[in-house]
Amino acid sequence: MGHVRKTAETLDVRALVRDRTKGILRLGPITVPCALGRSGIVVRKREGDGGTPAGRFRLLNVCYRPDRGLPPATLLPVKPLTERSGWCDDPASPRYNRPVERPFGASHETMWRDDRLYDVVVILDCNMAPAVKGRGSAIFFHIAREDYRPTEGCVAVAPAHMRLILSRIGAAADMVISA
Question: In the CATH hierarchy, which fold is given to the domain comprising 8-178?
Answer without folding.
Answer: L,D-transpeptidase catalytic domain-like (2.40.440)
